[in-house]
Amino acid sequence: MAYKFGTKAIHAGQSPDPSTGAIMTPIFQTSTFVQASPGKHQGYAYARGKNPTRTALEDCLAALENAKHALCFSSGMGATDAVAKLLKPGDEVITGNDLYGGTYRMFTKVFANYGIKFHFVDLHDAQNIQNYINENTKLIWVETPTNPTMKIVDITACAKIAKASKITFVVDNTFASPYLQNPIDLGADIVMHSVTKYLGGHSDVIMGALMMNDETLYERLAFIHNSCGATPGPMDSFLVLRGIKTLHLRMKAHCENGKAVAHFLRNHPKVDKVYWPGFEEHPNHDIAKKQMRDFGGMISFTTKNASIEDTFKLASSFKVFSLAESLGGVESLINHPATMTHASIPKADRETAGVVDSLLRLSVGVEDIEDLLEDLAQALN
Ligand code: P1T
What is 247-380's CATH topology? Predict the structure, then answer.
């Protein structure tokens, strides 16, 4: 039977522990598993490769993204690193020009040194990709909504282009979460998540994940996963399994609060631009409406005539929102992308993507909306 999202979030991959009946998957805090004779074991040999707590989480994550397989990594960057390791010198990658700063840094400062070429392209019109495809193109990497200006990329259109040229197509689905968007259903080959964010949901774990259907791709990535070893421990796997049980409830609240905050900001006299995919005038809003179920709780905004000093002052004047990197937790956060999450991107490239010094990014949490709006009002006053 195909269960709905909330039921999968609570149950997928998990059944009562056969030895005790414990309803929660135990934390298998062990590095190794005893073998009856060499190679004769119950599916688990050494915990870098496989651990039962992690297996339960991987099965749950695969179910949430309507995928056959999932692999969990010790961070989102660990997951991205594994995908990049599918490439070899001479290969080319097409990606967006508005990306999480850490992804940009890994592509330009690590993998470019191994002879891999990256094209950072405006993906407002997915057809733009066509201009950069040649026989060396092996990967298309897309974030949507993008971090931090919430640009929307047409997943179905990218998938068609990728398929026609036999290019592996990856979607970083961190900002949407599987509750709002399922890229594999729209033709993506791999979905990547910073599990640290909405999936974990409680700002207490760093983790990443990849989900996919194709068996060969899964085997190649599972080989890299085990060989290179960026695999998470059982305690973190347990915390995420527990966090995911309320993903659907949290996401509903993030979307509701996000909508209220976005409208509040748009109507505030000191606010200049507001980036939130739910606005009709937001670029590619019609595509967001097609490929997402709601618009989420991530919002960026600029204030009128603000210097960087004014922006720093504003960022530090909140009482409920905390000034911190990261997003997707129950608590509301504010971030200054230009000097925090996106500091590794050269200023000119950053500014082309809209990441100007006066831009602030909000991860709207699930606190009472009246308190969030009051906090915004007092800070902007
Ligand atoms: O932090 P980590 O779990 O390694 O995930 C990296 C990552 C990948 N993709 C996206 C879209 C991300 O936003 C991130 C991490 N981002 C932040 C820490 C941030 O505050 O934007």
Answer: Aspartate Aminotransferase, domain 1 (3.90.1150)
